[in-house]
Write a structure and sequence with these properties.
- By secondary structure, the protein is mainly α.
- It has one domain.
- It is built from 4 helices and no strands.
- The longest helix is centred in the first third of the chain and has 10 residues.
- The radius of gyration is 17 Å and the shape is elongated.
Length: 51
């Protein structure tokens, strides 16, 4: 396990809160991306096969 120091978790939380809007809104998983709707490829085999 990596030593994060005394404030590791607090620093990560602060960075997450203060991230630019685009970074906070970015889908983090394939489910979030496919659930967005209206994206190119909504009917392609990858999207259909994932559900």
């Amino acid at each position: 396990m990596k030593d994060e120091g005394l404030f590791g978790a607090q620093d990560r939380e602060r960075l997450r809160r203060e991230a630019p809007l685009a970074a906070r809104m970015r889908p983090r998983t394939l489910d979030e991306f496919l659930g967005a709707g209206g994206h190119p490829g909504a009917g392609l085999p990858l999207a259909r096969g994932h559900r």
